[in-house]
Amino acid sequence: MSIGEKMYRLCEELFPICRSITGNGVRETFRILQERVPEITIHEVPSGTQVFDWRIPKEWNIYDAWIKNGKGEKILDFQKTNLCVVGYSLPVNKKISLNELLPLIYTQPDQPDVIPYVTSYYKECYGFCMTQNQKDALGEDTYHIYIDSDLSDGSLTYGEIIIPSTEGNNEEIFLSTYICHPSMANNELSGPTLVTYLAYMLLQKQRRKYKYRIILIPETIGAITYLSIHHIEMKKNIRAGFNISCVGDDRTYSYVASRYGDTLADKVAKNVLSFRYPEYKRYSFLQRGSDERQYNSPGIDLPVCAVCRSKYSEYPEYHTSKDNMDLISPHGLQGAYEVYCDIIEALENNEYYQTQCLCEPQLGKRGLYPLISQKGQYSAIKKMMDFIAYADGSNDLIDISNIIHVPVRELIPLVKQLKECRLLKKMEM
User: Fold this and answer.
1) Which of 129, 137, 349, 361 has the most beta carbons within 10 angstroms of its beta carbon?
2) Long-range Cβ contact pairs of 398-404 (< 8 A, separation 24 or more)
3) What value does the mean pLDDT take over residues 132-156?
4) Rounded distance, CA 27 to CA 172, Å?
5) CATH number listed for the domain at residues 3-57+155-349
């Protein structure tokens, strides 16, 4: 079974769970993720805790919800779709008229056949979501509305994986994803699923140049919470970071720049995407929308960008019931996994190199060049010769990849060969 297929099956398992920025749905999700990666450490931050300019909200849990018509028939049922209730809705149990019901119902009028995803985290209220077609079909009647939920002091839950460098290096690569949406496949589950399998891969590596800091958090409030605890050490140690979301569909790849677009994260993201998917879409920081907002904020200034497939808010199914398991695929998830593996390998091997002889080295006597020169053979070692031409100590591996138009993953074995022949030296920067 491919990694993409494993990721898709994990998404299927997680899809029915009702998640929010707090609550037992998040904890259940982590329980399942820990079956794959037991190294995930779970943290709880109490309600009311001050985190910079914000406070941890009350914890919300929901058990059931429905709307019944005058005949006692359920026209809306939380057990069938957890998107039908506004997130953080207070409990309610009463009979109301159509005129009283209509203001409580949220739809997406420009997409009349979808249920929108709606929340109200910081204003206590209640409400329901349905398709515009369903709302238009409601007639005069007495409706029984019911929400069995609880909003009370509890905690915000997040997960963390710290994977140490095998070389005692405190420099970090940072991976962040959010875990706070109900049944949405691309916008929610593709990120945590990808991060879980990247963590598994990193834990198996025999050599890790960098330390890896991986977090699974509720969007916005979770990032702010984590930064309020760790921002000083993160600012000191993180060399590149990525906000990971919307990585499961088959449509495209997208890159969202850091605040100034000039970090190592930006550099490696653009390099890898240029070879994997040259037609990728580029977005400036002005088009941000997820937790890269917090990581790039003034005073935090972390080198974080985003690499995704169809960017959040840019695809029609975003934040609707159409963001379901049909939108993502094993192939789409596999592709994103391979992109991030390329990013990690590029970072792990990115060094400045300098050749150790003047003029071109004689590669033939070292077994690196055909002893018989014939038309067509030169192209086979052109990558090596081009690499040597720019290995002057002023370019790192990603720079050379960009100059000679060869993916980093193809340069890594060449570097190994040249080092073994003592033709190449890593520069101490």
Assistant:
1) 129
2) 398/267, 398/268, 398/271, 398/346, 398/350, 400/353, 401/271, 401/346, 402/271, 402/274
3) 98
4) 27
5) 3.40.630.10
What's the pTM? 0.94
Count of H-run helices and E-run strands, the chain? 12, 19
C-alpha closest to that of 17 among 92, 85, 81, 76 = 81
Q: Which residue in 3, 327, 330 sits closest to 196, CA to CA?
A: 3
Closest CA to 249 of 191, 176, 180: 191
Residue 275 amino acid letter: F
> E strands within 50-111?
50-51, 54-55, 59-68, 74-77, 92-97, 105-106
Q: What is the dihedral of CA 330, 350, 426, 233, to 10 degrees?
A: -120
Q: Where in the chain is the domain with CATH 3.40.630.10?
A: 3-57+155-349
Distance CA 194, CA 185 (A): 12
Cα 403 from Cα 385, distance rounded (Å): 13
Specify whether the CB–CB gap between 192 and 177 falls below 8 A.
Answer: yes
Indicate whether 375 pLDDT > 50: no
Taking the CB of residue 281, how many other CB atoms lie within 10 A of it?
18
Rounded distance between C-alpha atoms, residue 101 and residue 120, angstroms:
18
pLDDT mean over 398-415: 95
Do residues 79 and 64 make contact, with C-beta atoms less than 8 angstroms apart?
yes
* Rg, C-alpha atoms of the chain: 25
CATH of region 60-152, choose from 1.25.40.10, 3.50.30.90, 3.90.1170.40, 1.10.8.60: 3.50.30.90
Lowest mean pLDDT among 245-249, 277-281, 364-368: 364-368
Q: Encoding tokens for residue 342?
A: 């390329």
Amino acid identity, residue 273? L
Return the amino acid letter for 386.
D
pLDDT value for 222? 98
Domain 352-426, CATH 3.90.1200 — does that match?
no
For residue 361, name the pLDDT band (cuts at 50, 70, 90): low
